[in-house]
């Protein structure tokens, strides 16, 4: 989703801005643009394009030589994907340029009042009110003009503002959309994501909500909107930000699927103690006494992270015997949730920037609840807002469809489950068995990926289908949801995931001869019941693609297409059963000619509600 880069320094701005945008491409976007101070003109130089940063780069070769500018990748919210709607947006004189992430909620009334005073808008965006408002309030002091304009708007923003008349500064402000300022040597770089900064420096200041900064070549001055100066906390960006390469794979999605043995191993490494039958999480400052005091666990997330949260909640409830549930962040935050002060609320997010998840944990914190992050991106807003938690260490995930983050999130949640369970009724021996099984997961995942079974036969069955159903019970139910999400995200095939026992209460009506039904039946306590459900759909002519334990001949013989996976304890089956579903979505997407790593209308990091 939208990306912001700004550069002010002693080097050419344009190539650095383009490089910054390239590094933000993975977030998802549909158009891009750049604004520069042209020393030979009294207007700002602006170039925008629909489509890829590559297109923008081709179109800007004639750009002016300058050392200051701002650039943006847009993911359309207000107004279609058009060149005029791309950022930066300008005031009527082309002397003030604004790039913006977030949503201005009262833009309709602001636009009407600006139009009434004679302003002619050039786009359909909410953002365009900002340069006009700044122009309205500008009386020679850029900082004060931006502060005054911000006072008029309601909503979320991360903005960068460039003034033709002030080629020595960029103004940046944040409320709800992340911004980080990189402090380099003779250069200062702004990014909506550290990825845009790390090529220049690892010294960074994160803006907090309602803060505004003046960036110059020598650094930045940060203050609150009410004028109070903020003591800057310079942090060092940690983590792996090397621009990810496909390393021989056709797509990032496939690379990330195949990487899962290592990414899961990284997540578990140093945390699971097989000899003690326990685990330790360095980012979690909770003693056994505090852990035993945890009365409930609520896992909050969106999309794939929500599905990982469902798996985690099941594990916590069934193994640690602590009441646990998963909540969709966008629902939870607005439903006036009851926040148990003796509970813990886990914010699960790959990017650490998802607006709904952030909003939900802020609501929890407001109500006095304890929040812990289960996050991949180090230093992200959710990680910082939670204050403590677990990094899942899956490494940069570039493909929009989340794969390795899902299994790493589950690995982190299982580790937490083990700790929690050991403070309660899980014995040393049971703890050891769980720790050993968990530590062995990377090997089992590798074993499956070496021999993934007849995925291409399943692709043939699924690619032309009008409707596809994913079914599972217990721990396989969230995996069914995740399989359907992947197929929708990547291949745009109409499908849904359902609890297998609930299928007869609705989706059974969709069964026609040949309807592909993907059934997850690893050997667990629900196996017999799942077999009955399998027979129900089979009787209606469905084509059964079944993911089951290697060696389960009974199930294999009932399936039209049988996909065996290595056997693991029932609560760890999601690590294995999700793999063929990830591969299936990838291969169906490929067979249908989809743009796998950048599927339509979806963003990697959804920073708006
Ligand atoms: C977007 C992505 C999904 C992801 C979800 C949550 O919708 O397209 O793949 O699961 O956001 O993202 P998060 O970064 O919070 O895990």
Our Rg estimate from Cα atoms comes to 25 Å
Morphology: globular
Strand order of the largest sheet: 3-2-4-1-10-9-11-14
Strand content: 15-25%
- Overall pLDDT score: 93
Characterize this entry briefly:
The chain has 20 helices and 26 strands. It is an alpha/beta fold and 609 residues long. The protein has an eight-stranded antiparallel β-sheet, with helices on one face. A six-stranded antiparallel β-sheet has the order 5-6-7-8-12-13, covered by helices on one side. It has a five-stranded parallel β-sheet with strand order 18-17-19-20-21, sandwiched between helices.
Set out the fold topology:
Blueprint: E1 3-8, H1 13-24, E2 31-37, E3 44-50, H2 53-59, E4 68-74, E5 89-90, E6 96-101, H3 107-116, H4 129-137, H5 142-152, E7 157-163, E8 170-175, E9 180-183, E10 188-191, E11 203-206, E12 211-216, E13 219-224, E14 235-236, H6 252-258, H7 260-268, E15 272-273, E16 278-279, H8 288-292, E17 296-301, H9 303-320, E18 324-328, H10 329-332, E19 343-349, H11 355-366, E20 370-375, H12 381-386, E21 389-391, H13 404-422, H14 428-439, H15 441-450, H16 455-463, E22 468-472, H17 476-491, E23 495-499, E24 516-521, H18 527-538, E25 543-549, H19 553-558, E26 561-565, H20 573-591
Parallel strand pairs: 17-18, 17-19, 19-20, 20-21, 22-23, 22-24, 24-25, 25-26
Antiparallel strand pairs: 1-4, 1-10, 2-3, 2-4, 5-6, 6-7, 7-8, 8-12, 9-10, 9-11, 11-14, 12-13, 15-16
């Amino acid at each position: 989703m939208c990306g912001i880069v700004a550069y002010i320094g002693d080097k050419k701005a344009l190539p650095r801005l383009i490089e910054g945008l390239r590094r933000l491409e993975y977030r998802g976007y549909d158009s891009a643009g750049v604004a520069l101070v042209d020393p030979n003109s009294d207007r700002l130089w602006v170039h925008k394009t629909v489509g890829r940063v590559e297109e923008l780069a081709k179109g800007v070769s004639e750009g002016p030589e300058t050392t200051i500018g701002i650039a943006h990748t847009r993911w359309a919210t207000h107004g279609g994907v058009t060149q005029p709607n791309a950022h930066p947006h300008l005031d009527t004189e082309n002397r003030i340029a604004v790039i913006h992430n977030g949503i201005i909620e009262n833009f309709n009334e602001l636009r009407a009042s600006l139009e009434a005073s004679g302003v002619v808008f050039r786009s359909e965006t909410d953002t365009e009110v900002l340069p006009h408002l700044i122009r309205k309030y500008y009386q020679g002091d850029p900082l004060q003009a931006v502060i005054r304009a911000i006072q008029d708007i309601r909503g979320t923003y991360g903005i960068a503002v460039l003034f033709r008349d002030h080629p020595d500064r960029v103004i940046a402000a944040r409320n709800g959309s992340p911004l980080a300022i990189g402090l380099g040597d003779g250069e200062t770089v702004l990014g909506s994501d550290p990825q845009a900064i790390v090529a220049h420096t690892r010294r960074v200041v994160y803006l907090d909500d309602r803060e505004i900064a003046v960036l110059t070549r020598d650094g930045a001055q940060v203050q609150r909107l009410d004028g109070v100066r903020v003591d800057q906390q310079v942090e060092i960006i940690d983590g792996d930000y090397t621009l990810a390469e496909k390393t021989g794979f056709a797509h990032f999605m496939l690379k990330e699927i195949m990487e899962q043995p290592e990414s899961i191993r990284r997540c578990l490494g140093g945390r699971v103690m097989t000899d003690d039958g326990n685990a330790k999480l360095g980012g979690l400052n909770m003693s056994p006494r505090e852990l035993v005091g945890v009365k409930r666990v609520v896992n909050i997330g969106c999309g794939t992270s929500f599905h990982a949260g469902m798996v985690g909640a099941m594990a916590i409830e069934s193994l640690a015997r602590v009441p646990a549930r998963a909540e969709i962040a966008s629902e939870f935050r607005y439903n006036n949730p009851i926040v148990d002060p003796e509970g813990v609320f886990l914010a699960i997010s790959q990017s650490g920037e998802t607006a709904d998840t952030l909003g939900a944990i802020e609501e929890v914190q407001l109500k006095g609840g304890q929040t812990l992050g289960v996050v991949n991106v180090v230093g992200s807003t959710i990680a910082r807002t939670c204050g403590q938690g677990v990094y899942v260490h899956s490494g940069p995930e570039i493909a929009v469809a989340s794969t390795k983050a899902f299994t790493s999130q589950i690995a982190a949640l299982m580790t937490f489950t083990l700790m929690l369970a050991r403070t309660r009724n899980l014995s040393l021996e049971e703890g050891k068995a769980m720790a050993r099984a968990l530590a062995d997961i990377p090997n089992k995942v590798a074993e499956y990926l070496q021999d993934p079974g007849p995925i291409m036969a399943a692709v043939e069955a699924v690619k032309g289908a009008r409707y596809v159903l994913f079914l599972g019970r217990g721990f396989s139910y969230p995996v069914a949801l995740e399989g359907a999400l992947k197929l929708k995200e990547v291949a745009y095939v109409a499908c849904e995931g359902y609890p297998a026992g609930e299928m007869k209460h609705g989706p059974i009506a969709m069964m026609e001869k040949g309807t592909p039904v993907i059934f997850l039946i690893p050997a667990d306590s629900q196996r017999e019941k799942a077999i009955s459900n399998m027979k129900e759909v089979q009787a209606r002519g469905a084509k059964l693609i079944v993911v089951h334990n290697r060696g389960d001949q009974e199930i294999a013989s009932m399936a039209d297409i049988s996909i065996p996976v290595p056997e693991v304890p029932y609560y760890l089956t999601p690590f294995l059963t999700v793999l063929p579903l990830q591969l299936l979505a990838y291969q169906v997407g490929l067979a249908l000619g989809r743009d796998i790593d950048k599927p339509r209308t979806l963003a990697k990091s959804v920073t708006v509600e």
